[in-house]
Amino acid sequence: MYVTKPRLFFDFALKNRFALPSFNVCNLETARAVIEAAEAEDAPVILQTYFGDLYYGGFDVLPQLLRLLAEQARVPVLVHQDHPDRDQMILRTLRSGYYSVMYDGGHLPLDENIRGATYIAEVAHGMGAVVEAELGQFGGEGQGGRVEMASPEEAKRMVEESGIDTLAVAVGSVHGQSSRLDLKLLEEIAEITPAPLVLHGGSGIHPDDVRKAIPMNVVKVNIGADLVRAWMKGLQEGALLEGGHEPPHHVAMKHAGAKVTEVARAKLSLMGGSHQATPMQRKLEEAVADLQPSQAVVV
Ligand SMILES: [Zn+2]
Fold first, then answer.
1. Among 2, 100, 176, 246, who pairs with 80 as Cys (CB 3.0-4.6 Å)?
2. 258 CA distance to ligand 1 centroid (A)?
3. Which residue is catalytic, options 82, 165, 209, 290?
4. Is 60 noted as a catalytic residue in this protein?
């Protein structure tokens, strides 16, 4: 199922106390491997593309490919646009049919971040999509290594003033690196704002911290590095396998795909999504329309 009611999708996860791993995918094989994992776990899932994935997979190809795979999946699949390289990319992905996009303003001064997110929220909401904004900096790859923690007061202002739907908060996780979360800070943020929360750098977060974070309104955890590592290692191993009558490139890619599926299944299960796909899909099918965006107080 291609999810077109993203607020209901996140609301279901929030109410049922589980989080959705959001996997970075860039081609047919990785996307299919993630969907296979979700079907095996009977778990809803998110496929996401950051700008590098879109340039690699093709702007006119990858969104359509993901939509087709999602439509054929036996579980709800939300397609999300992760880190854009410029605001224009958000508009392009919306036009391509994405129902979930990210406004990447964590590096900006708060007022500027709010202003940009407010504009994107207006546009995206007009098209039935949800917007994830970012507060603080996760650091690691692509962000110059700089880590800046989110503040609860700023989180409250960000949500109330911009009208965004989900908020990615930097509370210790780092893109592509091992980390422990500042759970006290996360709890303070969850108490001050009702917005569903997102964590980036999910590959390296200690599993105990992932479990503890979920009751603190965390509904989405981005997973990039772990999937890429599994895919690359699988290709290297697969290239050495004997395939009998099967073409060697098929053997290698199937092996790599199986490795990706293994990692994805473990993340889906860790975040509590197993067996949630069937009840969620029923809810999504029964609803006439998506939930309304929360009312933003535009200043
Ligand atoms: Zn990120």
1. 100
2. 25
3. 82
4. no
* Cα–ligand 1 centroid distance for 251 (angstroms): 32
pTM as predicted: 0.96
Which class does domain 6-286 fall in?
alpha beta
pLDDT digits (tens, 9 = 90+) for 139-191: 887 656 688 999 999 999 999 999 999 999 999 999 999 999 999 999 999 99
Confidence (pLDDT) at 294: 80
200 C-alpha to center of ligand 1: Å? 5
Dist CA 131 CA 171 (whole Å):
20
